[in-house]
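Request:
You are asked to prepare a plain-text protein record giving the amino acid sequence and the backbone structure tokens, at your earliest convenience.
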Amino acid sequence: MKSGLKDTSFFLTAIILDTIVLWAAFSFAYWLRFTANLIPLSKGFLSYHYFMLISLQIIVIWILVGYFAGAYDTKKIYPLPEQFYDIFRNTLLSIVIALALSFFYSPFSYSRIALIIAFFLIHFFVAAEKLVFRALKIYLFKKGKLLSQILIVGEKPILQKTIDVIKKDKELGFEIVEVIENIKKDGRETFFNKLRSISERVKKQNIEFVVMAFPFERHKEIKEVLLRCRDLHINFLFVPDLFEIMISKVNALDLNGMPFFVLRQAPLEGWYGLVKRIIDIVFSSFFLILTSPIFVIIPIAIKIDSRGTVFYLQKRVGKDERIFKIIKFRSMLQDAEKKTGPVWADDKQDKRVTRIGRIIRKTHLDEIPQLLNVIKNDMSLVGPRPERPVFVEKLKNQVDGYIFRHAVKPGLTGIAQLEHKPDSSIEDVRIKLKYDRYYMENASFKLDFILIVRTIFTLVKRIRH
């Protein structure tokens, strides 16, 4: 199937499915409110025709909000957590806009309870639709159907990592047609010789994407690829080499005709910091209630498995290098560091880890008590992981920019934890610092939401296995 036809098919299918599912959600909400009569009526009966007329307005606005926000962009790689965030945003905005507009053009009456029911049903119905649609796409991709042909151009080691990610993630729907690698041979780079025919290869093999995986300093090669492909109307994907430069949110400032770029120096402050704190308290309290059975089961298991305390308190470095005590379920033998001193733990080989400890560390259940640290304002739900003072003193001297991560509160989860394994070397610290910097410079409610949902998915997956 040609790229344009495939994109149009996906676009129309997504809109049609969303419309059907939204209509079903509103219809079910009407049935629950007025037919099932779960809650006694107090202000009379609203006809199905009138209720669905209101619902149709909300559905149209819902689709338009999603369209202008890029939710139907067929060229966008669209992770599930981001889709769930967009469902919430679209639903909230569409209902608010529809209600606001209705006051301007007609007398208006509606059922608040029915709309509240619809609000929650839309999340459930549309999320289920996205999961089914995603599963169908992955099934077709695995069968070799509807794949997008891509050409990868780049330089190791970032080139090899890009290839591995694309081959592993079937949801992307990419088929690697060719890889052009820049290799130094006899002191000369072979890249430009291979690049001469890139435009012909793109045309001949019906390539839809050119993926460029270069270190940042290779701007000359990136420019060359863009120039050779500028008239081919294809899509470019750039793999950033996190972070040979720090990706920052930048504001433009004009001083008497001279442009300046202002880097944000106080991340996560202001109104965002205030609302983030409120969200931390509300969600941490909710998760503590939700996981309360774990605070009975795990302590019993720990006591049966080994002698010692149930909880383990350890000093960590927080915002502005303030020391606080992190709370965890004990996963090691009591006084495990008396002989070894502070060391990075290796769960597979560390004999200090108990049998129950291996389970709760693998599933990260040992970290659930840290919700109390969030409520105490030592930590946030999302942010860089806090490190121990003894390691911080060493890392400040060994890793450039490490101290910058203490400009914000540490978190229970974050990009670094989701994208990379636990620290076992200085190189691991450098890699994770790049992710921490990215979060700190691009923090938003949307990003926080996506990371929390991804964390929940990861925990459920680990517990199941």
Summary: The two ends are 38 Å apart (CA to CA). Residues 270-464 form one domain.
